[in-house]
Amino acid sequence: xxxxxQTPRYLIKTRGQQVTLSCSPISGHRSVSWYQxxxxxxxxxxxxxxxxxxxxxxxxxxxxxxxxxxxxxxxxNVSTLELGDSALYLCASSLTLLAGGYNEQFFxxxxxxxxx
Amino acid sequence: DQQVKQNSPSLSVQExxxxxxxxxxxxxxxxxxxxxxxxxxxxxxxxxxxxxxKDKNEDGRFTVFLNKSAKHLxxxxxxxxxxxxxxxxxxxxxxxxxxxNLFFxxxxxxxxxP
Lengths: 116, 114
Prior knowledge:
The complex is a heterodimer of chains A (116) and B (114).
Chain A: E1 5-7, E2 10-13, E3 19-24, E4 31-38, E5 42-50, E6 53-57, E7 64-68, E8 74-78, E9 87-94, E10 106-107, E11 111-115
Parallel strand pairs in A: 2-11
Antiparallel strand pairs in A: 1-3, 3-8, 4-5, 4-9, 5-6, 7-8, 9-10, 9-11
Chain B: E1 4-5, E2 10-14, E3 19-25, E4 30-38, E5 45-51, E6 56-59, E7 62-67, E8 72-77, E9 86-94, E10 103-104, E11 108-113
Parallel strand pairs in B: 2-11
Antiparallel strand pairs in B: 1-3, 3-8, 4-5, 4-9, 6-7, 7-8, 9-10, 9-11
């Protein structure tokens, strides 16, 4: 079974530009979460999508947005890039959402974004 | 505001000895804790977890201990092997914050010396 795939793997942008990252979850998985990893902050939760709806959102500005398609693939978009947005962006998929429970999340290899 | 903290950025251990990785948290509403392992150029992979109703969970060479009163958990690896060399992340989840909204620590890089 193929794992979580993320494209592109590496990206270089300049301040003020926007960027779109893509995530394909494991086949059959319907929940996709996004995380930002930086050296000083570790992994920080961005948002989670299930059945094309955003179910949960972390503490990030509105420049960060996402969406999920009917095939569960997800994209995240960052507009008006800042230097501090340089990070590894990780996508994780899980089978479903469990109220009060936890479904194991499987992470992709990430997209390394560098903002110059 | 870092709700999950791993105060040791790195740890070196001799092969065959015990590795102990520590993690502290501040939010008493966390009810589920996990450890992830991450190799370079790969995403984190789930290692072991523990519910807040338990104080210990064991899986082969890996054991996680939870001390709720101290808001502290630790991961023990016995015996340590060179293949265990990786970055280990502690993570926590609160049922009120969403099923898959994990709060991660900053990671501890474990080096197992052959």
